[in-house]
Amino acid sequence: MKIAILDGAVLNPGDVDWSPITMLGETVIHPVTSSTELAEHAAGADVVLTNKTPLTSSCLDILPSMRVVCVLATGYNIVDIDALAKRNIPVCNVVAYGVSDVAQHAMALLLELSRHTSLHTQSVKEGEWQANGSWCYWKSSPVCLEGMTLGLVGFGAIGRRMGELGHAFGMNVLACCRTPKDPPAYSPFAFVSLSHLLETADVISLHCPLTAATRHCINAQSLATVRRGTILLNTARGDLIDEAAVAAALRSGQLAGLGTDVLSSEPPSADNPLLTAPNTLITPHIAWATTRARQNIINLTAENIRRWQAGTPINVVNGVK
After folding, report:
1. Radius of gyration (Cα) for the chain, nearest Å?
2. Number of helices and strands in the chain (H, E)
3. Other C-beta atoms within 10 Å of 104: how many?
4. Tens digit of pLDDT for each residue in 69-85?
5. Residues 93, 103 share a domain
6. Closest CA to 50 of 34, 73, 19, 66
7. Residues 250 and 275 in one domain
C-alpha cells in the first residue's frame, strides 16, 4: 500500500512522530502541494492524506489509484465528498483529537480580554509603573468571571469542555445546540434557544460547525439583541460571524471584546475589518496546534487507515462503506 501525505508541514514541522502512519505502508510526505503538483505528489497512492490541500471533483481523473482519503483534521470542506462518494472512495476525518486544547485556548482568550494581562505587562515594561508612583494602577479595569453567564453556541465535545472550564471559574452556563441531550451534572446549567442565549449571556462562545444554517449566525441583527458589553469568542469557524458587523459592534461598545482564532479568510486580507477593531484578540488558527493534539491527529489517522484496510472503516463522512 502506498500512502501520500500532501501537506505535512503545518501538522508536523518536525516535533511530532509520523511513524504510526509510515509503518502502515510506503509513505511519501510532501510539505505542501499546489494544484499543479497534485498528480505528481499523489501518483500511485492508494491512501491520500490532506489537511488543507483541496481535493475537488476535477482531481479525480488525475488520481486513478486513490482508494481512500483521510483528512488530517475534523473539518472536511476542502474535499468534494459527494464526488468521491460517486467513485466509491471513502473520506475519513479525525474527531475529538484536541477537545481540551481548543477549549483552553478559548478560555485563554477570555481571560486575556477580562484581565488584560498583556496590556499591563507591556505597560510595566515601558516604565509606566515607575512613572505612576503608586503601589498599583490599571489601564483597564479587570473583570471577574464568577457569577457571569457563559453562553455556548454548540455543545459537542469542545463546547461541553468549555462549559466545564466556565463552571470551574464560577460562571453560569447556557448552551444552544440542535439536539439538546445529556445535560452536564454541574449547576447552574440550562439548554436554551439561540435567541435566549444571545439576550442573556455575558460571554458568547462559538463551538458549532459551519453550515448553511450557522453561517453568519452572529450578524448585525443578532448583535442588536445581545447585552451591551458582551464578550464574543470564536474558536470554531470564521464564517460563523459577519466580520463587518462584529467590528461595528466592537467600535460602538455593543461588544466589549472579541477573541477569535479563526477568520473568514486565512490568512486575512489586509482590509479585514477585525484587524483594526478595538478590544480584539486574533490568533492565527492555533487553538488545535499543541504537540499533544497534532500527535493525536496522526495516531487517529493511522487508526482510520488500519480500519479501512480491515474492511471496517470508521469516521467516514461521505457514507461510503
Report:
1. 22
2. 12, 12
3. 17
4. 999 999 898 999 999 99
5. no
6. 73
7. yes
Element (H, E) at 122: helix 117-125
Residue 175 is assigned to a structural domain of this protein: yes
Domain containing 57 equals 2-97+291-309
Measured CA to CA, the distance from residue 94 to residue 195 in angstroms comes to 31
Cα-Cα end-to-end distance for the chain: 19
What's the pLDDT at 257?
98
| pLDDT tens sequence across 143-159 | 999 999 999 999 999 99
Q: Do 226 and 275 have their domain in common?
A: yes
Mean of pLDDT values over 210-221: 96
pTM of the entire structure? Answer: 0.94
Q: 293-319: per-residue pLDDT in tens?
A: 999 999 999 999 999 999 999 999 999
**CA separation for the pair 19, 22 (Å, rounded):** 5
Mean pLDDT (whole number) for 211-232: 97
The answer to whether 272 touches 263, Cβ cutoff 8 Å, is yes
> 170 and 37, same structural domain?
no
Q: Give catalytic residue positions.
A: 237, 266, 285
Give the total number of structural domains in the chain.
2
156 with 185, same domain: the answer is yes
Does residue 24 have a pLDDT over 90?
yes
| In a domain? residue 263 | yes
